[in-house]
Amino acid sequence: MKLKEIVGKQIAENCDSIAFSHRGFEVLEDFDRYEAKEDSLKSFLRARIQFYRMEGKILFAHELAVILKKIEEIDAIQDALEIELKHILRNIKNENFLSNGLWKSQEVEGNEKKKKHLEKVW
């Protein structure tokens, strides 16, 4: 395989990685929409807990509070994972973008040499 083919293949692979990273960010945006629904559910549960406490239904309010606490624990873990995933995707995208810049600068350099050579010939 010639160097030009290797460089072309590497640039194509990097572009694929950049595209997959971009898609990952789109998926996380969808995830964020569900976060809003989850926040709404937590607010609803808090209101119900308060309502049932005021109604004197302490046991039921306590059961709802246990459920809410578990949802909040899961949410905190998901939030941390989302932050880490965004960091990973951003790094993949940036590293491949920088790598393509290095490869393309070599390609341009080679084209300039060819252009100068052709100018001499003509």
Your description of this structure?
The chain has 2 helices and no strands. It has one domain. The protein is mainly α. It is 95% helix and 0% strand. The radius of gyration is 27 Å and the shape is rod-shaped. Helix 1 (3-54) packs antiparallel against helix 2.
Topology:
Layout: H1 3-54, H2 58-121
Helix pairs in contact: 1-2
Give a short summary of the structure.
The chain is mainly α and 122 residues long.
Question: Strand pairing plus helix content: what structural class?
Answer: mainly alpha
Q: What assembly state would you assign to the polypeptide chains in this entry?
A: single chain
What fraction strand? under 5%
Outline the biggest β-sheet.
Answer: none
Order of helices and strands: HH
- DSSP helix fraction: over 70%
Q: Overall mean pLDDT score?
A: 83
Number of strands: 0
**What is the overall number of helices?**
2
Q: Termini distance?
A: 31 Å
How many domains, as an integer?
1
Shape designation? rod-shaped
Taking all Cα atoms into account, the compactness measure Rg is 27 Å
Runs with pLDDT <50, length 5+?
none
